[in-house]
Amino acid sequence: DGGITQSPKYLFRKEGQNVTLSCEQNLNHDAMYWYRQDPGQGLRLIYYSQIVNDFQKGDIAEGYSVSREKKESFPLTVTSAQKNPTAFYLCASKAGIYGYTFGSGTRLTVV
Amino acid sequence: AQKITQTQPGMFVQEKEAVTLDCTYDTSDQSYGLFWYKQPSSGEMIFLIYQGSYDEQNATEGRYSLNFQKARKSANLVISASQLGDSAMYFCAMREPNNDMRFGAGTRLTVKP
Questions:
Q1: What is the rounded distance in angstroms from the CA atom of residue B108 to the CA atom of residue B10?
Q2: Does A42 touch chain B (CB under 8 A)?
Q3: B106 vs A92: CB contact, 8 Å cut-off?
Q4: Distance between CA atoms of A47 and B113, rounded to whole angstroms?
């Protein structure tokens, strides 16, 4: 079945450590997105990519980095510069104008 | 930037009754799309329903319908015959001119048995 796979489901990060969240899709979608969700809040856009080897900052890109070397993959790195990274991270992809397909999310906690 | 407002942080509904979740939006664009997503406690976002700005009929998908009032810039979700499994967070979203999506803060719906 086609879909988006995010891994890991849970991730723990120590202070000052970089961590990478994986997002893979087999839907042949061009556009991919990373959102952050804090408890009781909506989704905020971190980065997005419309095509391979190109990506754009969203509303809250500081402290994050991405790459888009393959159409299927859009990993997100949470760097040590992100001072409050504890959140739920959702990856999504889109083909056409009718909404997104989401992954099941990664819950990141700083320990 | 476009803005989505969901004024109800939490809602309660009795099982088998209908409930309306409010959503208003702000845009100066003529062409846009409005979406509702459901987020259960497991975290995934489930697409429920879509309304295009030029659609004359209100969208319906099974027990879900979208009450679209363009002049008032509102796109309320109506869930009929509520079920216990409807308990979740519900997000209203709008597709922006660059085709990105902007989300509201969400409404937590609790269905009482």
A1: 5
A2: yes
A3: no
A4: 41
Angle among Cα A73, A79, A84 to the nearest 5 degrees reads 115
Please report residues of B whose CB lies closer than 8 A to that of A100: 45, 47, 101
With b meaning 16 or more CB within 10 Å and e meaning fewer, what string describes A95-110?
eeeebbbbbbbbebeb
Nearest CA in chain B to A6: B44
Span B27-36, pLDDT tens digits? 988 889 999 9
φ, ψ for residue B69, nearest 5 deg: -120, 95
Residue type, B5: T
- Amino acid (one-letter) located at B32: Y
Could you report the per-residue pLDDT of A34-92, keeping only the tens digit for each? 999 998 788 999 999 999 999 999 999 999 999 999 999 999 999 988 889 999 999 99
User: Which pLDDT value is given to residue A81?
Assistant: 87
Strand partners, B37: B47, B91
Report which of B23, B25, B95, B24 is spatially closest to residue B64, judged by C-alpha positions.
Answer: B23
Distance between CA atoms of B56 and B48, rounded to whole angstroms?
Answer: 19
